[in-house]
TrEMBL record:
The lineage of its organism: Bacteria, Pseudomonadati, Pseudomonadota, Alphaproteobacteria, Rhodobacterales. This is Agmatinase. It comes from Paracoccus acridae. Pfam families: Arginase. InterPro entries: Agmatinase-rel, Ureohydrolase, Ureohydrolase_dom_sf, Ureohydrolase_Mn_BS. CDD domains: Agmatinase_PAH.
Amino acid sequence: MAWMALEDAKNQVDQAFTRKDPRGLSFENAFGGATSFLRRRYSKDLAGVDVAVTGIPFDQAVTHRPGTRFGPRAIREASTLQAFDAPYGWGYDPLSVLTVVDYGDMAFDYANTREVPARIEAHLGTILDAGAAPITLGGDHSITLPILRAVAARRGPVALIQFDAHSDTWVDDDPDRIDHGTFLYKAIREGAVDPAASVSIGIRTDNPDTLGVTILDAPSVHRDGVDATLARIQQVIGERPVYVTFDIDALDPAFAPGTGTPVWGGLASWQAAALLRGLAGVDLIGGDVVEVSPPYDTTGATAIAGAHVAMELIALYGWTRR
């Protein structure tokens, strides 16, 4: 396979535009070419597409360090290291089973912040109405609220698996506020998320009211282990279709320093990988990875983690369709 990769790399470049077969791995020099996610073809045509990867480069009022608007670009670049091989340990190649395209980024007027949530909801609605599963690269965590609105409008209240350092259920009854820390409060209050079938993993900040969401905080994951955590997740979500949102600050800053709100004591990357892999078999509706802020991580480790999360979400979606 290495020989074939080298042979292909002699002739292949810019497969984000030039590849003819939408399925299969890509052998292109990682340091060159157009950086679509996993070298998938850029396309606005969703006919026959299983998974549409899209970016929402929006951050508006994060707690401390802005810059997550650069997350989609950094995640795409990091993903070029993953395009040569099937994800290790899954036992199948989701890029050969699924038709995956990079749907590009959502357009919006950066000076008209109030219109952004409605644009996100419409953007995701287009993907969902085409029958594709959306995998979204953010952006701050406020983007997940309109995504959930779009999903719930078509599927009813969803079961949610949230990886995060913060529960994001702080009280916010102002419909005009766009806040990365209150997306779940509003989603539950609006009926887009069923809290009884939802779980938040990796939490390590206090919140007086989590609105009925099951909290599996970081200390419990460290103490009880991956298998017990997965068993509890499965008990909560049951057989419900599920949406997964992964705030990169679920990881400890040692593994993902490039985020707006780092909190120590978080998940190690191996724990997150094992938990995502252990969800194999869930009925995944879609997912996102948010809060990657590359200006605060010159190593690129945070973007690499974000790219792996997005790849795992694609593999999860393909598991029951392989």
